[in-house]
Amino acid sequence: MSADKLKLWGGRFTGATDPLMELYNASLPYDKKMYKVDIEGTRAYTSALKKVGLLNDKELSEIHRGLDELLKEWDADKFVSVQGDEDIHTANERRLGEIIGREIAGKVHTGRSRNDQVATDMRLYVREQLQNIRAILVEFIKVMTTRAEQEIDVLMPGYTHLQRAQPIRWAHWLSSHATYLATDLERLDQVIERVNNCPLGAGALAGHPFGIDREYLADTLGFNGVIGNSLTAVADRDFIVEVLFWGSMILNHLSKMSEDMIIYSTAEFGFLKLADAYSTGSSLMPQKKNPDSLELLRGKSGRVFGQLAGFMMSLKATPSTYNKDLQEDKEPLFDCLVTVSHSISIATGVISTLEIVPEKMQGALTMDMLATDLADYLVRKGVPFRETHHISGEAVAMAEREDLSGIDKLSIEQYKQIDSRFEADVVKVFDFEASVERRTATGGTARSAVLKQLSNLKQAVSK
Ligand code: ARG
């Protein structure tokens, strides 16, 4: 028989496949990474076939023995693909036939289509990968919170518009980024919930003609339930879009955190030093130490979002049920999973090994950053904030006019001149620690408020 006749769908074809079409159509080079879940799916499916009397005990045990052997071949990297192995499903079925004989192997696909098969494989594969990613994300959040607890004493400037704004704790900055990540974790759990639904037993599109027990299939494969419409079951790739979105969002978060750290590690800021393990040098300038890890994190966020946008376009306006466009889900998805998982691990490495320079952070605090606190001082004496904002602005202006280094250098007489409600205790305002410690309300930068955030984060990851 010619290779074309041996194809699973070879029966109705007379002409040979164009060699480029063969390559263009083949997904085995990238979908072979699903070999294990494909075998797992077939194992469950054949058990279900036995339940409806389409296989007997002997046939089933022979099939399961063959699947075990097939799995061993893949695990040992001994699987040899042949021409015509279009994708992982055809490759596995072909090889199973060689191991146990075509007579029995030929019954495996009864009532099943590659359409419900691939949808099932993808969900099983994604579920496993997301659980791995979940574990490294939890680890990352723990590293962030532990570091924050250890360095809670360190103050630094907080910025808006990248201009010095108000003093904050370095731990508050860490906690802020960990807070985004905790939301990513929550969102991930919701995505896993929706991934974990079973399309198997939907057939090509119309449903199963032999009354297969889909609930049994779902249970056996550890799914939460079945997808309730066969047309949807074979076509639904929303879960892939969700994973690509999830990856885009977390990398977006990591890109922003990276950008801060790139800036903080410049000589101009000098707030932190990246470990050598996460930096590289220049081929020309011997003095350079570049934050490549952080730049890559920033750059890869663009790539993953591109995959989301690209796959959304592939999916858009596809007709009902299965169309080959859907095969385009794999490369972006696989790349996204690897990129996201590596990115979280790199970010964890960067955060756990960097060195902070507290003197530089604290040294960057300037008295003008307490102008709001000066306004608040008068608020505490009953003056409306709109008025105190103005008065504090006058103090900043006067200090500038008098060529003083900051608002703390104005004498009490000068303060009285600006507003008679200023008293000698105004000097208490000019203390960065005191400023930070006033922000005790939930979510603020006072020690107690930051510790509370950290304890909430720790609780969120312990679930
Ligand atoms: N390799 C295909 C995919 O990934 C499997 C499903 C093929 N189904 C079909 N009707 N041609 O989408």
From TrEMBL:
Membrane-spanning residues: none
EC numbers, comma separated: 4.3.2.1
GO molecular function, one term: argininosuccinate lyase activity
PROSITE patterns given in the database record: FUMARATE_LYASES (PS00163)
Residues annotated as domain Fumarate lyase N-terminal: 11-306
Domain Argininosuccinate lyase C-terminal span(s) in chain numbering: 369-437
Pathway: Amino-acid biosynthesis; L-arginine biosynthesis; L-arginine from L-ornithine and carbamoyl phosphate: step 3/3
Catalytic activity: 2-(N(omega)-L-arginino)succinate = fumarate + L-arginine
Gene3D superfamilies: Fumarase/aspartase (C-terminal domain), Fumarase/aspartase (Central domain), Fumarase/aspartase (N-terminal domain)
One GO-annotated biological process of the protein: L-arginine biosynthetic process via ornithine
Cellular component per GO, a single term: cytosol
InterPro entries: Arg_succ_lyase_C, Argininosuccinate_lyase, Fumarase/histidase_N, Fumarate_lyase_CS, Fumarate_lyase_fam, Fumarate_lyase_N, L-Aspartase-like
Enzyme category, top tier: lyase
Protein family according to the UniProt entry: Belongs to the lyase 1 family. Argininosuccinate lyase subfamily.
Name this protein carries in UniProt: argininosuccinate lyase
Species: Trichomonascus ciferrii
